[in-house]
């Protein structure tokens, strides 16, 4: 396994985990009483909150519903497909 394949695998795992974290974050938003500062919820809140803060500044809640986690899933899914998909940039290099 060369360096490009190893970095591609690492990027694939990282983007997959981020997508999973943001999906968990979407589910957590259905339960507003969940304390995001307590274990185990802080394991999801800490890595996802920086991007969500930025997205909340750009896209305000629509009808009182925060759609920033949904946008985040879309962003990371798009990046994963463009870079690592069947005809992705890094896939075509290999």
TrEMBL record:
Coiled-coil regions, chain positions: none
Entry's Gene Ontology cellular component terms: membrane
Parts of the chain that traverse the membrane: 12-31, 58-79
Membrane in keyword set: yes
Sequence similarity: Belongs to the YggT family.
Top-level taxon of the source organism: Bacteria
Keywords: Membrane, Transmembrane, Transmembrane helix
Pfam families named in the record: CCB3_YggT
Species this protein is from: Tumidithrix elongata BACA0141
The name this protein goes by in its record: YggT family protein
């Amino acid at each position: 396994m060369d360096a490009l394949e190893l970095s591609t695998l690492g990027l694939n795992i990282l983007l997959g985990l981020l997508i999973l974290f943001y999906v968990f974050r979407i589910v957590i938003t259905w339960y507003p009483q969940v304390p995001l500062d307590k274990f185990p919820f802080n394991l999801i809140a800490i890595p996802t909150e920086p991007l969500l803060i930025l997205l909340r500044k750009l896209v305000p809640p629509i009808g009182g519903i925060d759609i920033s986690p949904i946008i985040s899933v879309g962003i990371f899914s798009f990046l994963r497909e463009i870079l690592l998909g069947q005809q992705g940039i890094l896939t075509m290099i290999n």
